[in-house]
């Protein structure tokens, strides 16, 4: 019987015109359920259009305001810094030509500020001294435009470029790390012949273009017409500045004076006169004087501008020595209720953790308990003193016996599962006389001496050379065998490494950030939520900038700051130093005077080849601030809350440098300097940026104890030279061991009397392999002995 064909039925939903409209809503029902004319979609579109229009209008207004602020009559003079790319660049003649062009007459002293009615702008011209790195850095921080001067006739064979020498290359890299403002390049000393002139200029531009930003312009600067062309374009140019510089008010002092303070002997009031820039400054704010420290203000005086834009011709130039008449327009005094307190360190209360004095009833009850304890018979190990017996818990006296004395595991091991201590064995309290006399103070010694350099005053040249050679050898050894240390022969390992512990997993095992903190942590401040605090502080500063407050001075005003309680010797030194480099005072945000633990992302500078050891004294330039610090270096683990300490700052990779320093809010650039030789200029050793402020960041110092197989039998092996007595083997028994060929295992028991031990591994151990044990302890930065470079000098 054949199969019957069954065809699929036709779909009749849209088979006729009438059925096509069945699913549609009727016009009557549509009118009933339709949305109103003011529907959400239409209103949202209109709101979106209105919002975009408002944003465009706000940007246009902000741009016009910025343009008026930069080029208006109330704007501060633009700072042009002339920097020679090589020693052959003649900056003196260029500065005279610029000042002559702007003022219409010969300019006197330099640095000088000039008002030009022709260009409708005011300009301050600074010359960066070639070879003085510190002065060049300070000028680059305040520059509105850096003019790099190249000599077409120069040839620098020590570098890859014909027009930039080694110092020019070093400064260029430092300027990039600080943050370049607007930049231009002047090409000088071109030949008079037009054809050769064009060829030389083309060669120079081709050679220098890769070294500068894409928007950098190149100008010939030999004649007055060429300088006039630059100034005319410079007049309408919108200048760029690093973001960190626009977050705080600052003043570049054009005049520095001191007034002795009769009430405080040894202290003076420092008078800094100049134009206020970037933001408004409150008289209640704290200020930082570069290289000197943080201070409070006793007064701010608004002075009549000595160089108005529409001044007469005979008042077109200003030099600090020529201004004698000072007219004070108004004066602001701080409000004691609103002035920010000058708080640097937290003052710890040594009795904060103490209990109240016991009552007579409590003391009598304690006496009775003590008498009952004396009558009770206790089972104690041999050699236990009365003081040691007082620490033994009563409940454990009966349970333990001397027969358990072989299982002594005193080492702490953090477990991966629960983060607690590993099983410590059943007889931690029973150790021999050596263990009973274990002194934790001996463990304060570092695996490597904290500072291999002794006091420089007591060393001869030969001793200094020997110390430097030792540091170089330690640096090379750290690169070849990182973290490996030798167990000392004369000190028990359980005493030498008493502060170290084992970790089951570096990534997942827990470590309490509040455990066993050093005394310095009682002197610092910490935030519950640093990012939230930073957002609040910056919003408060912006609100102060936008509101018209009586205690604030707007940017662009010519003022005199009265900085109080400055050491007299330091203030006198600043009066001489202002002739060589700019003295900058910047306003501090809230909390920025308090000490905490700062972390910087840092990289070793290419021009510095000597080793940089952890806890070595460096000078940190962070924005406008300068301070002395002794950092420790560590890795930056993205997937863990623990970070491994590095003994040296190695070249070619980024590390995190942690220091005790005043709080600062990122973003801020970092330039680290170091005095290589006594009396010499500091050298750039590292560059970087501020990463965070976090005292709870855990930095672990890792050491690796190594031993060598003596006998191997399948999965068991006898290992020697890791320890030198059996008590040390029992102490470190809970810690896992591993080999350089990838085996893992544990310590089973000591063998003999010379520190050999039996290990059980997860595979057969090769005879040439090395057995290792990793131990960790938390590391902290060193508290600086002195804080500010100029003040301490």
Quickly list its features.
34 strands; 7-stranded mixed beta sheet; alpha+beta; 6-stranded antiparallel barrel; 793 residues
Question: Would you give an account of this structure?
Answer:
By secondary structure, the protein is an alpha+beta fold. It has a seven-stranded mixed β-sheet, sandwiched between helices. A six-stranded antiparallel barrel has the order 7-9-19-12-11-20. Strands 29-30-33-32-31-34 form a six-stranded antiparallel beta barrel. A hairpin with a 4-residue loop joins strand 32 (744-751) and strand 33 (756-761). The chain is globular, with a radius of gyration of 36 Å. Residues 319-323, 393-409 and 415-457 have low confidence and may be disordered.
Number of helices: 17
Poorly predicted residue ranges? 319-323, 393-409, 415-457
Mean pLDDT: 82
Fraction of residues in helix: 10-25%
Summarize the biggest pleated sheet. Answer: 7 strands, mixed
Strand runs, count: 34
Distance between the termini: 115 Å
Shape label: globular
Q: C-alpha Rg, in Å?
A: 36 Å
- In what range is the share of β-strand residues? 25-35%
Strand order of the largest sheet: 6-5-4-1-3-2-13
Global structural class? alpha+beta
């Amino acid at each position: 019987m054949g199969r019957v064909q069954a065809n699929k039925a036709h779909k009749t939903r849209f088979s006729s015109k009438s059925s096509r409209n069945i699913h549609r809503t009727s016009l009557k029902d549509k009118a009933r359920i339709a949305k109103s004319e003011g529907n959400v979609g239409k209103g949202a579109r209109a709101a979106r259009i209105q919002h975009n229009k408002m944003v465009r209008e706000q940007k246009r207004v902000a741009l016009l305001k910025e343009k008026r602020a930069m080029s208006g009559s109330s704007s501060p003079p633009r700072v042009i810094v002339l920097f020679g790319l090589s020693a052959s660049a003649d900056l003196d003649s260029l500065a005279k030509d610029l000042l002559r062009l702007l003022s219409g007459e010969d300019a006197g002293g330099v640095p000088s500020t000039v008002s030009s009615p022709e260009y409708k702008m005011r300009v301050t011209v600074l010359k960066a001294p070639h070879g003085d790195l510190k002065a060049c850095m300070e000028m680059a921080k305040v520059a509105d435009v850096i003019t790099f001067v190249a000599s077409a006739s120069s040839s620098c064979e020590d570098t890859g470029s014909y027009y930039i020498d080694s110092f020019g290359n070093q400064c260029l890299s430092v300027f990039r790390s600080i943050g370049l403002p607007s930049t231009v390049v002047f090409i000088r000393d071109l030949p008079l012949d037009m054809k050769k002139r064009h060829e030389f200029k083309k060669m120079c531009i081709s050679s220098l273009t890769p070294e500068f930003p894409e928007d950098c312009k190149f100008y010939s600067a030999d004649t007055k017409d060429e300088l006039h062309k630059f100034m005319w374009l410079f007049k309408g140019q919108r200048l760029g500045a690093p973001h960190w510089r626009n977050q705080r008010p600052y003043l570049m002092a054009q005049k520095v004076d001191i007034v002795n303070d009769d009430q405080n002997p040894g202290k003076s009031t420092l008078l800094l006169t100049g134009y206020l820039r970037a933001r408004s400054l409150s008289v209640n704010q704290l200020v930082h004087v570069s290289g000197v420290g943080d201070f409070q203000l006793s007064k701010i005086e608004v002075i009549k501008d000595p160089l108005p834009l529409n001044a007469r011709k005979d008042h077109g130039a200003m030099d600090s020595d020529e201004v004698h008449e000072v007219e004070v327009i108004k004066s602001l005094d701080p409000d004691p209720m609103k002035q920010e307190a000058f708080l640097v360190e937290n003052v710890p209360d040594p009795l904060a953790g103490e209990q109240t004095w016991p009552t007579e009833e409590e003391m009598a009850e304690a006496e009775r308990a003590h008498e009952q304890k004396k009558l009770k018979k206790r089972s104690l190990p041999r050699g236990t003193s009365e003081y040691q017996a007082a620490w033994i818990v009563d409940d454990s006296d009966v349970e333990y016996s001397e027969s358990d004395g072989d299982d002594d595991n005193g080492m702490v091991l953090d477990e991966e599962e629960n983060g607690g201590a590993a099983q410590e064995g059943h007889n931690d309290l029973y150790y021999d006389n050596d263990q009973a006399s274990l002194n934790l103070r001996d463990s304060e010694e570092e695996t490597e001496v904290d500072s291999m350099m002794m006091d420089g005053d007591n060393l001869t040249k030969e001793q200094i050379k020997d110390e430097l050679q030792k540091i170089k050898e330690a640096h090379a050894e750290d690169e070849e065998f990182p973290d490996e240390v030798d167990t000392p022969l004369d000190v028990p390992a359980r005493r030498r490494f008493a502060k170290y512990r084992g970790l089951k997993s570096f990534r997942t095992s827990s470590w309490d950030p509040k455990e066993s903190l050093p005394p310095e942590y009682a002197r610092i401040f910490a935030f519950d939520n640093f990012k939230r605090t930073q957002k609040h502080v910056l919003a408060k500063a912006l609100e102060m900038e936008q509101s018209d407050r009586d205690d604030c001075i707007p940017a662009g005003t010519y003022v005199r700051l009265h900085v109080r309680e400055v050491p007299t010797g330091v203030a006198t030194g600043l009066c001489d130093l202002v002739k060589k480099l700019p003295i900058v005072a910047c306003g501090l945000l809230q909390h920025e005077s308090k000490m905490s633990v700062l972390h910087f992302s840092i990289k070793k500078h290419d021009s510095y080849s000597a080793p940089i050891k952890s806890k070595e004294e460096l000078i940190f330039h962070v924005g406008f601030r300068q301070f002395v610090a002794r950092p420790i270096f560590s890795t930056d683990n993205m997937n863990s809350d623990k970070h491994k300490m590095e003994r040296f700052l190695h070249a070619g990779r980024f590390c995190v440098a942690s220091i005790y320093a005043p709080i600062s809010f990122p973003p801020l650039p970092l330039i680290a300097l170091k005095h290589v030789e006594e009396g010499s200029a500091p050298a750039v050793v590292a560059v970087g940026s501020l990463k965070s402020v976090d005292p709870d960041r855990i930095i672990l110092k890792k050491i690796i104890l190594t031993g060598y197989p003596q006998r191997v039998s399948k999965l068991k092996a006898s290992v020697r030279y890791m320890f030198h007595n059996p008590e040390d083997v029992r102490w470190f028994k809970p810690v896992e061991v591993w080999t350089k060929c990838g085996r893992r295992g544990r310590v089973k028991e000591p063998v003999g009397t010379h520190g050999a031990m039996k290990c059980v591994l997860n595979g057969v151990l090769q005879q040439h392999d090395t057995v290792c044990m990793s131990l960790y302890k938390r590391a902290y930065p060193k508290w600086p002995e002195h804080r500010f470079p100029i003040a301490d000098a």
